[in-house]
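Z., the sequence and structure:
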Amino acid sequence: MFTPSNRTFETGRLLRFAAVGLLNTALGYTIILTGLTLGYGDILSNILGYAGGLILGFFLNRRWTFSDAIHLRKGAVLRYAASFAVAYGANLTVVLIALSFGLTNNPFVHLAGISVYSALFYLATSRFVFVSEPGRGNSDNSGL
């Protein structure tokens, strides 16, 4: 059952999440290109790129986007990884469905997948990963 977050929706938080997404995408892509240049191959380069982007994204989202910098809740890293897996799985599902309809090499398919991924990952991180501990105040107004 879905339990609504006790945090109010905030445009600033959503913009910070998007900025972090751009930064971790840039880092991840740089790592992928570096891995390819060094001869690591597509799979290892992709894994390293996503790992680098996820690590950067976790810390930036924790400290800046969701202002949860002081205390890391037990299990937050696992919840973050699980949230990524679900969102990434949804992204791949969108792409695979499009491929089953014959839509190949279509950038709009990937844009749709990225949109689904981003929306699900934002909802998961804001309501499942970076939530205040019971009895602890929410410092969402700190900005940085």
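Confidence is low (pLDDT under 50) at residues 136-144. The helical segments are 11-37, 42-65, 76-100, 107-129.

Let me know what you think.
H.
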